[in-house]
Hints:
Elements: H1 2-27, E1 46-53, E2 56-62, E3 68-72, H2 80-92, E4 97-100, E5 116-122, E6 127-135, E7 141-146, E8 152-156, H3 157-163, H4 167-170, E9 183-191, E10 196-204, E11 207-212, E12 216-217, H5 220-231, E13 237-240, E14 256-262, E15 269-276, E16 283-287, E17 293-296, H6 308-311, E18 326-331, E19 334-341, E20 344-348, E21 372-375, E22 378-381, E23 387-388, H7 390-401, E24 405-411, E25 428-433, E26 439-448, E27 451-456, E28 461-465, H8 467-480
Antiparallel strand pairs: 1-2, 1-5, 2-3, 4-8, 5-6, 6-7, 7-8, 9-10, 9-14, 10-11, 11-12, 13-17, 14-15, 15-16, 16-17, 18-19, 18-25, 19-20, 20-23, 21-22, 24-28, 25-26, 26-27, 27-28
Helix pairs in contact: 7-8
Amino acid sequence: xxxxxxxxxxxxxxxxxxxxxxxxxxxxxxxxxxxxxxxxxxxxxxxxxxxxxxxxxxxxxxxxxxxxxxxxxxxxxxxxxxxxxxxxxxxxxxxxxxxxxxxxxxxxxxxxxxxxxxxxxxxxxxxxxxxxxxxxxxxxxxxxxxxxxxxxxxxxxxxxxxxxxxxxxxxxxxxxxxxxxxxxxxxxxxxxxxxxxxxxxxxxxxxxxxxxxxxxxxxxxxxxxxxxxxxxxxxxxxxxxxxxxxxxxxxxxxxxxxxxxxxxxxxxxxxxxxxxxxxxxxxxxxxxxxxxxxxxxxxxxxxxxxxxxxxxxxxxxxxxxxxxxxxxxxxxxxxxxxxxxxxxxxxxxxxxxxxxxxxxxxxxxxxxxxxxxxxxxxxxxxxxxxxxxxxxxxxxxxxxxxxxxxxxxxxxxxxxxxxxxxxxxxxxxxxxxxxxxxxxxxxxxxxxxxxxxxxxxxxxxxxxxxxxxxxxxxxxxxxxxx
Length: 482
């Protein structure tokens, strides 16, 4: 009987303890935060972050407008994306595991004088401070503890790296705050040992034009690539915040200055390119509105490589296929013409066209062309002969547009000697009439080792063009000629 009485007493004690645990657990407020969560903060509640890493300290604070600002060790332009990544790491930070609940010797874990301290302040002034000590023996993480808790735990290496930020890690690294689309003008002044090159390009509508030192169409794709290189410059290292000795970095006589005209802004953004760094893997950069000097390391930087001719539109000629109603060409001294009618194209006798009225620069309309009457289904022409399909004109125009410039020569002017380039009596002369009296043309002159000389309507120079493009054009013209 005594044996059973002891059993009942033990059972009663167990039940009492169980009831106590249940009751006390019910009385605890539901925080929704697990014991492994470190800071207990959400991204929208974080107000201030301070990180001591070694001998450096950085503090970032949220402004009234929600923008984050580095306030220590001094005020810097702040990368909002970098700070948001830090806050994301803080909000999701958790301990991997607990090592010891009440250690007697913190120096064993490197926590008596920790190298990194992360302090997070949230709304209503609550604060949590995490101390990060030595790496674990197997190198999988770091020992860490909160200042208001005696437990020593382990955090992962990824989390430790995400929290151990310096001021440079949180600074804005994009040097130019402008998009390619907002740039309406660019000027590049480049200094070499023997010369100073000053190049200006302006955007007109969707097209780019060179206005100095030559006036010509600019290559839009090349300009877009150039702007991507310039606006894409990012800081590899912050080398000098004061900029007190500019000659040290090559800014007493910079080798290049780049001015970007931004739509809606009165003054251009000016960027200076200094000396290459000692490793010659990058170069020093500064802007006019900041004393800071940066090191950048782009793979390539087109402004340092391009010359004005490199920026010229490499497409010699371009027209709207659908607008062309007349195509006339001279090939090996013989002239042919096509005019559009409702069914396609017809070849027209050369006697119907007075070519003597067309000037060498293609500025005058044809004065005695065949009569063309527009109808709903196209155009009709009196007289005529061999009929062709529209695809054959499309092929001709395509071949014209495929001619590529590989060199820029002499400026067209009244004193130019066209005979020197074989353009006084061109081997190929193609003209297109777009129906409003405008005549667009291409003349092909002498062949040299690198290609052919050529000129075109609305282009200001004699150009050297690729041989392959002229050979393809010649082949099409032979096929079209009766």
